[in-house]
Structure formats: structure tokens, C-alpha cells
Amino acid sequence: xxxxxxxxxxxxxxxxxxxxxxxxxxxxxxxxxxxxxxxxxxxxxxxxxxxxxxxxxxxxxxxxxxxxxxxxxxxxxxxxxxxxxxxxxxxxxxxxxxxxxxxxxxxxxxxxxxxxxxxxxxxxxxxxxxxxxxxxxxxxxxxxxxxxxxxxxxxxxxxxxxxxxxxxxxxxxxxxxxxxxxxxxxxxxxxxxxxxxxxxxxxxxxxxxxxxxxxxxxxxxxxxxxxxxxxxxxxxxxxxxxxxxxxxxxxxxxxxxxxxxxxxxxxxxxxxxxxxxxxxxxxxxxxxxxxxxxxxxxxxxxxxxxxxxxxxxxxxxxxxxxxxxxxxxxxxxxxxxxxxxxxxxxxxxxxxxxxxxxxxxxxxxxxxxxxxxxxxxxxxxxxxxxxxxxxxxxxxxxxxxxxxxxxxxxxxxxxxxx
Amino acid sequence: xxxxxxxxxxxxxxxxxxxxxxxxxxxxxxxxxxxxxxxxxxxxxxxxxxxxxxxxxxxxxxxxxxxxxxxxxxxxxxxxxxxxxxxxxxxxxxxxxxxxxxxxxxxxxxxxxxxxxxxxxxxxxxxxxxxxxxxxxxxxxxxxxxxxxxxxxxxxxxxxxxxxxxxxxxxxxxxxxxxxxxxxxxxxxxxxxxxxxxxxxxxxxxxxxxxxxxxxxxxxxxxxxxxxxxxxxxxxxxxxxxxxxxxxxxxxxxxxxxxxxxxxxxxxxxxxxxxxxxxxxxxxxxxxxxxxxxxxxxxxxxxxxxxxxxxxxxxxxxxxxxxxxxxxxxxxxxxxxxxxxxxxxxxxxxxxxxxxxxxxxxxxxxxxxxxxxxxxxxxxxxxxxxxxxxxxxxxxxxxxxxxxxxxxxxxxxxxxxx
Lengths: 418, 418
Known about the structure:
Chains A, B: Belongs to the gamma-glutamyl phosphate reductase family. With 418 residues, chain A is α/β, with parallel strands linked by helices. In chain A, 42% of the residues lie in helices and 21% in strands. The first copy, chain A, starts with a helix and ends with a strand.
């Protein structure tokens, strides 16, 4: 057995032992651990910023892009956000033990379906060090032990934050192994995690196409699929012009680097030269490169799209655009090119909206609002680990509740089955 | 590409096309298809019995056990049960389109979490030909296309039943490819199904240890885990003697061949020579072989257990039995030997029952009632494909509702994210 294999198996055993204890940990202890962790992060902000400086130096040597360096950076403001996030999860209701449903049977049996933890969660993420705190906190809230595997770029920052999470667990009398961080940059640790059937109950990958592809190809453990956010906005012939202009601009430009940012605009053919031209002019004025199909190339500022621009996650001030004959053509386009993440329709026509909602099967479908609302916080779920695009177990924003399972508790009175 | 690969890929494409249509099929059409299928099965009972005779001849040549031959057998009575099952699923409410939750956000967004089909389900099962009807019906009710792969022993019987299901679909104007049956006995078809990522959304294995093990080892597609039912019954010191005697006897002997049958009896040490002796005498009188640990071997009729008898699914008139010090020792025993299917406790003490319910994590935990209630019908869910023992997505009885996913439908009024 290699050293990495040994390390990971030992972590797995510790995680399972911690999970068995966490499964019935009092809500108050979990809350106290997260509040104590928040305080510890704030107290240790000096050390965290120091650790982050080492990561930034490593990143510079590695030649990371400006965007990557920005994701990596921690300053006092960002550490304050981490603290706030921990306190917010601490304040959330505990999902474990909640009744999902309860009913009586004619024979007198009383049946409850009750939320339980999943067990051991593996989270594999990339450069943002704040995920260490977010993912650790959400898993703990849901009563799960977690094995975190951060990006190699954020190695020291994540370790410094993780130390604070352990301080919080210790202060609350919970097992410190409830939140473990893989102590090596070696990529073999990821491969090992993906194979830990019977130890890790589910893997949550959070990162780019490369990471997600690797996880889906190699995992033997179940995975919450998390594909790209190739979000579409369809402007129908019955769209309200003012709403449509505001929503498209926001969906593309509010933030371009998040998975809920719009990547493709579909215009009903009857509005191309009126509302469509205005929307495109708004985007161009906001500095967006509009890559249009043949039916849009006569409009000012539109550059010709090529085939690869459809179904592409730009995460940048670029949008693909295409003309469609009607809502059915928009639906067909989205089925072909989308990633079942989030799509929006602008229309005042209820039947058209209903068709869009019924015939598409993305995790999130939106009418007359921005795709940028695809976010656990905006849904009112508190924090999230990510947006799941698969159809099993978790779908859409993955918060504490989505990190739970359930069991049935049945009570009788000496009841036997005839 | 081998012939089997080609066959399976073509079936997969047809299933996906059918699933896209089924996703928004009216409830009335699905109900009509199932009622028409029920009528078709009854009309074709002569042909089904003929087809079954060919399977029985094949089974005799293959030297199947009496129990296997009995599972395989279809007579008019059993066909009537199949018809009744189809009508019962037809009459169930349609889960697709149901609101699971709905709420408003302070910014005016209205969010609904709505049930959707999963897509394409693969069901791999063994000898019982009735699963063809049950699984086909439940998948259709939930708006899924299904690829059924029955046991080679029930090849002709399953094909005859499947023809009736297609008749039902055709009569209701639904795509006939909504329910497909793998048209070959070749085992390579199973291997192919397990690899159809992006085509089959989930595999439901229904069968013995060998099948389930194969599926779990080879599947690249997600699987609803379905381990053995190694069900435990713990009789506490605070058990009511009358309830305990009735429940243990029922849990073991009502039917011994189902996954909810009790396989291990745990007795609190303080009741061994009183209530415990009575319970064991009841079992022995009912023809059950009681294989006891050292603390029970002085009781009349008890034969010595060996180590392999614990954690074993007998599916027969045999039960393992052991003495434990208290509820915590019972919990530890069950954690070590159980399969997280169903366990029962007999006690009048609320704190003890609560400890058993909280600290064990089986799909179903039962107080003062028989483990034989581990069944979708008994839970009031209508029919079931099986009892899932995994913790992701489906757990416990898998009925139509457990064969669904969900999506979020968000409605705004030109709402943009600040």
C-alpha cells in the first residue's frame, strides 16, 4: 500500500468514527462549534493572511492568471465574509431529526420519515480557500463528517482555516475528525478519495471542467454531478421590453465568472430588429462581445459566432446569440446545447412560460428574472456548496438539507402483519 | 461494436426519446395505458401461461430448486395478482408535477420545487416474471422510460407480459418504447446497461447477493443500492411479553423468503431465562431452527451458532440468536452485522426506544411491530420495486415517488439581482 493510500484510509476510518458520533450530536453543540470556529478564524486572521501570502507566492511562481490569483487572495474583508458565513450556517435550523413526513396506517402503525446525516462527505475543490470553511460548516450542520481536498494553490490558506474549524469542534466537545483536510498536494489523494467505496458516501466536486470530468470518469463513490452552467436566456415574442432589457443585462453582466451567468441569448425571430436590437445594443454598450448567428450579424456590434460558441461556458464578458422561430425552437436549442443548470424565459404569455417550464428539464427554470439568482443564498437556503446539475438526490443549490438522507421510524403496539 | 452493444445503444436512444415525451405526458394517458395493459394481461393469460410453460421446462432442464421453480410459476391466480397490481398503480396519484415545496422571497421571487421524472431507469431482476409488470408500471407512473432486463429463466413469461404493457401504451397513445425489455438472454446485455452513462439515469437491481454484487462492482451508472435484508429484532428488558412473543414469531415465520424477514434475535441478558426462553420455545414449536450463541445454548431446542450465522440472510426457517447486555450492546451488534435494511425493538421504555431510533441508521427502524412491515404496500405507497438500503436519493421502499427527481421553477417580474 502506498503512503497516500495509507494516509487516506486512516483519514477514512477517523471520518467514519466521527460520523457515527456526529449523527446524534445535539444541535446546540454543532451551533457552538461553528460559532467558535468563526471566532477562531477572526482571531487567527493574521496567520491566515500570512499563510495566504505563501500561497500567492507559489501561485505567482506557477504563473497563475490574474483571475486565478484573485480567487486565491484573502484579505481582512474576505476573512470577515468567511466569519459571517460560518455564523450564518451556525444560525440555520438543524436539518437532522426533522420530520419530512408522518402518517398513520389503518392497522395503527405510525410512520415518520426523518432526516438523517448522509455519513461521510468528500469535497474536492480548487483555488478558493473560503470553500474550506463553507463546505466544512455545511457538512457539520448536516451531521456529516467531511474530508476536504482543496486545490494545491490554496494549500496553506486552507490549512490555516481548517485549524480554526478544528478549534471550534474541540471547544464544543465534538470530534475534531469531523472536519479533516487532506494534508498533501499529491494528486493521488484525489484518485484515492474517488475509490473509497464504503467509507465516503458521496463526493461533491466543486471546480472547473477538468476537475469535474476527472471526478466523473474515475469515481467509484457516488458523485453529486456538477456540470458547467451553460445558462440560456430566451426572449419571447410576448416579452415585456423593459423587463427583458433589464434581465438580460443583469444575467450576463452582474458577475460574469459565476455558474449562473448567462452564456447564450435566444431571440424570437419577430423581435430581432426591435427589442432584440436594443438588448444587443445594451450588452455591447456594457462591454460585452456578442457572438451572433447569421440572423443577427446585421446588427451593430455583433461579431459572427462559430459553432463552438454554442454550448460554451465563457465565464467572461462574451455571449453567444441566436435567432429562434418560437419557444419550441428555443427549447430544442437548449436541450441540444444546455447543461441542465439554469435557463430563463422572458414572456408575459402564461401558456408559453408553462411550455418552457414543463418541457425543459434544467435544475432551475426562471420566468422574468435573472439567471444570476441561481444561488442557495438567493433561494433562501443559507450557504451552498454548489449547484448540482444531476437528477439524483441533490439538484440545484446544495445546502445543508441536500447533504442529508432520511430513515423511517415506525411505531406499533405489538402489531403483526397478517 | 458487438451486436449486443449495438442492440443496447439503439434501445437506449429509443428510451431517451420516449422519456422526453413521457416527461410531460398527461396523467390521464399514463393511467389509461396501465388500465389497458391490465386488461391486455388478463386477455392474454392463455398465452402467458403457455410462455411460462416453456420457461418452466427450461428451468427443469437447468435443475432449478423447488423454491426457484415456485418463483417462476405463473397460474391464473398469479396473473390475476399482476392485473390487480397494474390497476392499483394506475389508480395512484401521479407524482410528476406535484409541488414538493413553494415559497416567496423578499424580492418578490416565487419559488416552487416540483417533482419531475428521473429520465431513463434500468431495472435488472431475476426469476420472478411479475417484476416485469410491477417495475414497468411504476416507472411509467413516474414518467420514466424503462429498460427491463429480466432473468434468463423467466425469458418467455416476461416477454409475454411485456407485449401486454406495449399494447397498453399503444392504446393510450404513448410511445411504446417507454417500456422496453432486453430481447436476449446474453449476460453481456447487463454489462452494457451498467455502462450506459448519459443514457440510463439510474439502475435498480432486484435480486440476490450475486446480482447485486455484480451491479455494484461494475456499474458506471448510479445504482439504488439494494443489499440483503439482514433484519434484527432486539427484545429489551422492558419489553411487553405478549407483544414480544407475537412480534418475534411474526417477524421470523410469516414469510421466511422476503427481505423483511427477521434473521437475528437479540435478547437482553435479564430476560433470557424468562421471556427469552418462551420466545425461543415459540420459534422452535413453529419449526424454526434457533442457532444460539453460548448464552442461549442451555435452552431447549437451541443449536449452537457458528460465527457465520451472524450477518447472514437465511431466507429460511432458521434464526441466529444472541444475548446482549443492554440496548447499546444491541446497537453495536446491529452496526457490526446488519445491512441497514430493517431492525425492530421490543420495549415499553421510551428512552430506550429513542436511543435505538437515534443511534441506528437503518432504512427502517420499528418499535413494537414486526419487521415484515418493511414493504411499500404496508407503508401505504402502493407498489414498490424493492427496498433500497443506500442513503442517496431513494431509501426504504422504492415506489413511484422515489423514482422521481425535481426541478425549481422561479417566477419574477423583471427581477434582477443587485
